[in-house]
Amino acid sequence: MQAIRFGIDLAKNVFQVHGVDASGQVMVRRQLRRAQVVKFFAAQPPALIGMEACGSAHHWGRTLRALGHEVKLMPPAYVKPYVPRNKNDVRDAQGCCEAVSRPEMRFVPIKTVEQQWARALHRARNLMVRQRTQLANAIRGLLYEMGQTSAQGAAGLEALLQRIEASDEAIPAALLTCLTPLARQWRALDVEIGQLDKQIVNGVKQDQAAMRLTKIPSVGPVIAQAAIAAIGDGRQFTSGRDFAAWLGLTRKSHDTGGKHKLTGHISRAGDRDLRRLLILGASSWLRQVKAKPDRGSPWIRGLLARRPVKVAVVAQAAKTARIIWAMLTSGQEYREQEHRAPVAA
Fold first, then answer.
1. Residue 97 has pLDDT above 80, yes or no
2. Torsions phi, psi of 71, nearest 5?
3. Does a structural domain hold residue 121?
4. Which of 99, 134, 168 is the last residue before a domain boundary?
5. 323 belongs to a structural domain
6. Global pTM value
7. What pLDDT score does 85 carry?
């Protein structure tokens, strides 16, 4: 008999494979070197293959799917209950093989090369933005120790950079020797981030779905492309709330004894980078609503009136996530009149 279901424990060089037949009898239990994986599965009849959604999983999912197999990726946390104790590679592969057969298992859609490229673009940008912020804080801190301060924001930092580049006499010469390379690195990172931003904007202009998402208040090109790169068309979620819960923008629930209880804090599960972008976008949008209340819907104005601003920001981010899911799955345009209050005559 041939194995009809496989579980693979992925690694850099050594892969553990576990295969069973229709009756659950173990047919394959072996290690494969990286170069042997494609050759081995090319010789197998079409089968169901389960793997954890970890590093290189999407690459191997596309590769094995091209060989005619049905490949399903699973969150590692959902596979863990099927792994016997005394964890090792053999039992990890066995757990994947068992978990992929369960009807209640949740699966991770295999990302395309374009989706992975877009996510890599955003991760590189996030890294450089963090480095740029660290440099700015270091420059401000070193100057503050010498009694040199400036205004908050980009304008204040620009003033400090110009003073450093001009070798301001008020700054000790010994301090300039360490501030000058920091300022130079900040300038270089700022240029690189600007180039990545242009690349993101150009990519959004060529994507109709991303262009539709930019019509949503608080959603710009960065959020639009990041959302599509993360979930594609969004059909792996059954509702907008499921998408918001996957992002960690909903409260945790605790049910026991027939009693339903929601905690006060959001779960913060799922895609951390996309959640952060949605919250930043919501924060920017609510600043505009507070300046011009007629721009916001009655719902958000009422929320701002009775709850703290940070709570309203998270609530707006969760609502934006639901709108993004609805637009991606339905293909419809954003209907502004349904989300904003009419301007008084």
1. yes
2. -110, 135
3. yes
4. 99
5. yes
6. 0.85
7. 83
* Cα(166)–Cα(237) distance, integer angstroms: 55
Please answer whether residues 247 and 268 qualify as being in contact, where contact means their C-beta atoms are separated by less than 8 angstroms: no
Based on the domain organization, do 47 and 124 belong to the same domain?
Answer: no
Q: Which of 162, 182, 206 is the last residue of a domain?
A: 206
Say if residue 330 is in the same domain as residue 253.
yes
Give me the domain span that covers residue 14.
Answer: 5-99
Work out how many domains the chain is built from and give that number: 3
- What strands lie across the sheet with 26-33, from one edge to the other? 26-33, 14-20, 5-9, 48-52, 70-74
**Top-confidence residue, 49 or 267:** 49
| Beta-strand runs (E) in 92-209 | none
The set of residues, in sequence order, having a beta carbon less than 8 Å from that of 139 and lying 6+ positions away, is 157, 160, 161, 164, 179, 182, 183, 186
How far is 316 from 217, CA to CA, in rounded Å?
10
- Residue 203 near residue 118 (C-beta atoms within 8 A): yes
When pLDDT is averaged across residues 122-132 and rounded to a whole number, the result is: 96
**Is residue 214 domain-shared with residue 322, that is, in the same domain?**
yes
CA 247 – CA 272 distance, rounded (Å): 7
Q: Pull the structure tokens for residue 103.
A: 């009807």
CATH of residue 53: 3.30.420.140
Which DSSP helix (H) or strand (E) runs through 85? none
Distance CA 109, CA 39 (A): 24
Per-residue model confidence (pLDDT) at position 143: 95
User: Is 49 inside any structural domain?
Assistant: yes
In this structure, the answer to whether residues 301 and 224 fall within a common structural domain is yes
Which tops the pLDDT comparison, 337 or 211? 211
pLDDT of residue 123: 95
Query: Is residue 105 a part of any domain in this protein?
Result: no
What pLDDT does residue 337 have?
Answer: 54
Interval 165-170 mean pLDDT = 93
> CB of 92 within 8 A of CB of 156?
no
pLDDT at position 294 is 81
Stretch 77-95: mean pLDDT:
93
Q: Which residues of 275-301 are buried (b: 16+ CB within 10 A; e: fewer)?
A: bebbbbbbbebbeebeeeeebbbeebb
